[in-house]
Design brief:
single chain, 367 residues, alpha/beta, Rossmann fold, 6-stranded mixed β-sheet
Length: 367
């Protein structure tokens, strides 16, 4: 059964006894799987509400984030509020909120005056089954998705306890997205802490292993590249790009693992287009030989390597080559590394470094 089928099965079960943990390598496309593929598969029966835990530092902030996303997705409240800008200026926000709440739920009339002193979101009672206001009468189930678990500022026990409240006590099908190694690291050095936290809330764990070849092909062919020549170059060298993602020794104790991050890949291909245009303009041969090493170095620069569940950026070329066998440090001279690491583009130096022959460079401008 595919990962998508596992998610659909969980979301469509009548009763849930815990959340589903969707784990997988950092940046491998878990969020995309939820927001695009799962949302499309369940669009006629479910609302998918994703809440990022990135930077949230209190239970109140977490709950408010859930309520805001629930309001935006499941009711016309926020849409109506956004359209009432002029009336808000004239009559005040309390009057407008009171009017909108009354139209959505007559029982809520006259409560807006109390909102002056308290958080209006306190008045929102979340429901796991709601009416689709686009299709009157149609009932849809609400799936809560908590993303970026490893980037929350809250203690793991607090986060999991709050998530458990939505799943166990409020009846929401709940998906937690997170790289399991990072979550274990959050739980402290004692592995029993993680097991206890997981036992309380996580009923099922599904590991997402993407189809790298398929996704890379899609990135190459669906992205907007600077020119048709570069798009053709990427298509011709798709296997070189895929080779960056092949299996590594990750999983053996003490051996660092690489992050197969599709965001970083898209960034690397976008950045390489500038190098491609420059080398092509100056007739530097064998441009494709630089591609593998450039992508590998971008991955290291942006993501580091995985050491014991934590990203590490202190890594030598010899270690990089263990993870990326075709990596050639000599194809990443100081001028290119300076550009990747510091954003300083010195075209003349880059051309001197990458060209096997003398290159006529433009003279420096005289002041």
């Amino acid at each position: 059964m595919s990962t998508l089928q596992e998610l659909v099965r969980y979301c469509t079960e009548e009763q849930h006894f815990g959340a589903l943990l969707l784990t997988g390598e950092w940046g491998c496309g878990k969020t995309h799987l939820i927001e695009k593929e799962l949302a499309e598969a369940l669009k006629s029966t479910h609302f998918i509400i994703r809440v990022s835990l990135l930077g949230l530092d209190s239970v109140s902030a977490l709950n408010n984030a859930v309520k805001k996303q629930w309001l935006y997705t499941c009711t016309p409240f926020l849409g109506k509020l956004n359209r009432e800008g002029e009336r808000m200026k004239k009559n005040g926000i309390v009057s407008v909120i009171n009017s909108i709440l009354s139209s959505l739920n007559p029982a809520s009339a006259n409560i807006a005056s109390a909102m002056v002193a308290v958080d209006p979101l306190e008045y929102i009672a979340l429901e796991p089954v709601v009416e689709d206001f686009h299709e009157k009468g149609a009932k849809k189930r609400v799936v809560l998705v908590f993303d970026d678990l490893s980037r929350s500022k809250l203690d793991l026990n607090v986060v999991i306890g709050t998530i458990n409240e939505y799943c166990e006590n409020k009846g929401f099908p709940t998906i937690v997205i997170g790289e399991e190694e990072f979550i274990k690291a959050m739980a402290s050095a004692d592995p029993t802490v993680y097991r206890m936290v997981k036992e309380k809330t996580i009923a099922r764990t599904v590991r997402y292993v993407p189809e790298y070849q398929e996704i890379i092909h899609s990135i190459i062919n669906k992205s907007k590249w600077p020119n048709p020549d570069y798009a053709e170059f990427l298509n011709e060298n798709e296997q070189i790009i895929h080779a960056v993602f092949v299996t590594d020794p990750q999983g053996r104790e003490g051996v660092p693992g690489k992050y197969r991050n599709f965001r970083s890949l898209t960034c690397a291909l976008q950045e390489f287009s500038r190098l491609y245009d420059t080398m092509r303009e100056h007739q530097v041969p064998n441009i494709a030989q630089f591609l593998y090493s450039f992508i590998a170095y971008i991955f290291i620069s942006r993501n580091g390597v995985n050491k014991n569940g934590q990203p590490c950026f202190e890594i030598e070329d010899a270690e990089i080559k263990k993870l990326y066998p075709d990596y050639q440090p000599e194809l990443l001279p100081g001028s290119i590394r300076q550009w990747i690491d510091s954003g300083i583009w010195e075209e003349e130096e880059i051309l001197r470094d990458v060209s096997p022959r003398d290159v006529k460079v433009r003279p420096e401008k005289q002041g």
